[in-house]
Amino acid sequence: MTQEILVQVLAAFLFTVGILIVLLRRDTIMILMGIELMLNAANLSIVAFSKAAGMVEGQIQVFFIITIAAAESAIGLSILVNLYRNFGSIKTQKANTLKG
Amino acid sequence: MHIALVIAVIISAILAVMMLFAKNPITSAICLLGILLMSAGMYALMGEHLVATIQLVVYAGAIMVLFVFSIMLLNLSNAESEFKNNPKMFYAGMTLGATIFSLLAYAVCTHFSKHTSSLTSGVFTNAKVEELGGNAKVLAHSLFSQFYISFEVISLALLVAVVGAVVLAKRKFD
Questions:
Q1: Do B108 and A8 make contact, defined as CB atoms within 8 angstroms?
Q2: Is residue A42 in some structural domain?
Q3: Could you say which of A9, A64, A66 has the minimum Cβ distance to residue B108?
Q4: What pLDDT is stored for residue B116 in this prediction?
Q5: Which is nearest to A19 in space by CA: A45, A41, A44?
Q6: How far is residue B143's CA from residue B145's CA, in Å, rounded to a whole number?
Q7: Which of B11, B104, B106, B127 has an alpha carbon 20 to 30 Å from A5's alpha carbon atom?
Q8: Are B109 and A5 an interchain contact pair (Cβ–Cβ within 8 Å)?
Q9: Has residue A95 been placed in a domain?
Q10: CATH code for the domain in which residue A24 is found
Q11: pLDDT tens by residue, A24-58
Q12: Which residue(s) pair with A91 in the sheet?
């Protein structure tokens, strides 16, 4: 039981660090990495809960989440390459066309 | 408690903090790769072998290669720490992080036993999974009988994502 609590606390910590990366870092590639970290933390939590409850549905969901994360990072990184092509930088301050 | 799991937890936490404070995106990418590998190890220690393998192949293999390739293509040269000349943002971020983490950890620790006991305990204990032929067999059986529509829809979504990525990468904006 303590083992599962430890993994849950680690998942909470990784999720927090992911939020901080998304909020504080100015590189868009770092923001994408923060999103990946948050997804990974959620996966960890789901798998630990599924293990504790003796079910396999959580692991199936994690399988789907990993697939969606792969699709998301492919789209996100191609948007990033377009951003670099248009603004010459991937800093979030440079992409301010919609700013009033 | 498994000692390898504790070591993996500690290494992941250290790598996460290093990832937050790294100046260079490639350092962060390597730290993220380490976290994903440690997560795969934790899945394997908990007995979920199929999820651990998928984590290794898809996350630590495919997605991280994509990230490292993008960092290489973008040619990020003038990397500097965002926290060096902005201590106000640093302290605000740390306060926010401490708040979020303490709330999440508090929620997990107080409700964990309640949630797991109130759940109807599933049939897939370690002995039962072993008897049915292992974790991969049990998962595959569930995936291709109970969840097969989701599986097909996910494969369609992946195809759409691949086409979208190609279109986005090839397009020339005027």
A1: yes
A2: yes
A3: A9
A4: 62
A5: A41
A6: 6
A7: B127
A8: yes
A9: no
A10: 1.10.287.3510
A11: 888 889 999 999 999 999 999 999 888 888 888 88
A12: A27
